[in-house]
Amino acid sequence: MTAETLVYNASLPRPSEEMSVRRNGLETVRPAAPHIATAAIEKSYRKGQHKIPVLRGVNIGVEKGEFLSIIGQSGSGKSTLLHLLGLLDVPDVGEVLLDGQRLDDLPGRTRDQLRNRVFGFIFQFYHLMPELSLLENVLTPLMIRYSAWEFWKRRRELRERAREIIGMVGLEHRLKHKPSEMSGGEMQRAAIARALVGRPEILLADEPTGNLDARTGQEITELLARLNQREQLTILMVTHDDSIARQAHRIVRLVEGQIEAVAAAA
């Protein structure tokens, strides 16, 4: 199975739809699978001779267009869970599922393609290339997606797409600026634009406000909420800040690698 067939096969049921199933001559309707989900995943890391369990049988499902916050203390497994969902790592036990189809056991090349096409990533430390301009940084996922020849042929279209996304996050006046010439809030907006330029289905945000002051952090969270509402973008956000988490539709709390509580955001 390739990334293309997995992502763009029109016959795959969407989480917002229902599946019609015929059994014994009767047609019944069952709910579709969540957009992204885990099934009893476990993950441990080794430190010297010691095995450190991080996640302990986590089950979670997120619907298409949902904005979910994952909260918990440092070391609770929040970032590890996000990395497993985004195929940056693989679980020791359990499964990661997209629209009901397992992802974590796919070949490495297919998982690479899925990361580039299905997921957008926002990190606490921005990870912008210091030698590139804002526009060039935003274009990097598309440079990876396409061959050099195809990118060159489509360069006008792709640059226009990047400019449109940059305008959406309010940085059209910074196109030629390098990261060292931007504030922390502007760099995080640039990272959001980079995550969106590939038109992902799912946005994974790991402490996106962690390095920002309270006011700028609130602006970034409100931007994510608008993107979720306007684009129906599925968003999973890790945060340790309860006030930031409440911007989401639903909150999941991790304690020592297990889900302790699930609640609607206030």
Secondary-structure blueprint:
Blueprint: H1 3-8, E1 18-23, E2 26-31, E3 36-47, E4 50-62, E5 67-71, H2 78-85, E6 93-98, E7 101-102, H3 108-117, E8 119-122, H4 134-145, H5 148-153, H6 155-168, H7 184-196, E9 202-206, H8 214-231, E10 234-239, H9 242-245, E11 250-255, E12 258-264
Parallel strand pairs: 5-10, 5-11, 8-9, 9-10
Antiparallel strand pairs: 1-2, 3-4, 3-6, 6-7, 11-12
Helix pairs in contact: 4-6, 4-7, 6-7
Sheet with the most strands, sense and barrel status: 6 strands, mixed
How much helical structure, as a percent, in the residues? 25-40%
Question: Which consecutive residue ranges, at least 5 long each, have pLDDT under 50?
Answer: 1-30
Could you state the order of secondary-structure elements as H and E?
A: HEEEEEHEEHEHHHHEHEHEE
Distance between the termini: 41 Å
Mean pLDDT: 86
The overall strand count is: 12
Radius of gyration: 19 Å
Order of strands across the main sheet = 8-9-10-5-11-12
Count of DSSP H/I helices: 9
Shape: globular
Roughly what fraction of the amino acids lie in strands? 25-35%
* Estimated structural class: alpha/beta
Features:
266 residues, alpha/beta, 6-stranded mixed beta sheet, 9 helices, globular, disordered N terminus
Describe the structure in your own words:
The protein is α/β, with parallel strands linked by helices and 266 residues long. 34% of the residues lie in helices and 29% in strands. It has nine helices and twelve strands. It has helices spanning 3-8, 78-85, 108-117, 134-145, 148-153, 155-168, 184-196, 214-231, 242-245, and strands at residues 18-23, 26-31, 36-47, 50-62, 67-71, 93-98, 101-102, 119-122, 202-206, 234-239, 250-255, 258-264. A six-stranded mixed β-sheet has the order 8-9-10-5-11-12. Strands 4-3-6-7 form a four-stranded antiparallel β-sheet. A hairpin with a 2-residue loop joins β3 (36-47) and β4 (50-62). α6 crosses α7 (184-196). The radius of gyration is 19 Å and the shape is globular. The termini are far apart. Residues 1-30 have low confidence and may be disordered.
